[in-house]
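Dear support,

I submitted the protein below through the web form. The confirmation email said the job was done, but the results page showed an empty box. After a refresh the structure appeared. I'm attaching both so you can tell me whether what I see now is the final result or a partial one.
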Amino acid sequence: MTNSGIALVTGATAGLGRAVATALAEQGMHVLVHGRDAERAAGVVERIEKAGGTAQVHLADLASLAQARDLADRVSAEHGSLRLLVNNAGVGAGRPPYRRRRLSADGHELRFAVNYLAPVLLARRLAPTLRKGAPARIVNVGSVGQAPVDFADLRMDAHYSGTQAYFRSKFALAAFTFDLADELADDGVTVNCLHPASLMNTHMVREAMVPPMSTVGTGTKAVMNLAAGPAGGAVTGRYFDGTSEARAHEGTYDPAIRSRLSRVTAELLAPFLTDDDRAAG
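What the results page shows now:
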């Protein structure tokens, strides 16, 4: 990828997202810094600008699909094209014993909504803008922790576990990555997913009261490999563990599972998508 163009990084006000946004700006990209907190987002923009880069704030709470839709629409309206979408924002397993189930603004299990439904909605609504910026890329920040979705209990009303909810959301994100990559294969837009690093020193990991094993810098290197490095332009529909190509959960490659997930997702997102969005692929 040439070091120019516009990049949207979700969850860019702290941790991995902030580091990736800063690294992209250092490479010459204009970075759209997404977050929920105006002051923190402005601080990231100020940091980037002091280092000689350019950036601007885009606020939205991705626990609301209406706000996710509006974020995509603002980006499309304000910018003629987009070179990169990094779906980084996420909700972790939470604080032990991981039993507190929370719902999103739309009544979905919170982790499924923020870690999966919002990235799908953003990718769908931004697909035309990414096509205009082609060659363009979508990088979905996933996790090595993945577990099959229970289609009979998407809200996890029974036997709730924050860890399982997190794993299921990342399973779904990987499966979606592979489908979208197939859909956009002829449009100059690559779509890849990665586990950036194990237990980085971020708020998400500290909240889970687990000792960090990796640095944010390690995760940033892995994301940048797909976001701005040669790997992200050479392959599509792949899963990476760090900077190395790997295999996601085997269920994410199952056509029947992916087809059912796609149908269910389309139903859940129907109020927030136009016919053009649904045909984005």
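Response: this is the final, complete result; the empty box was a page-load delay. The two ends are 22 Å apart (CA to CA).
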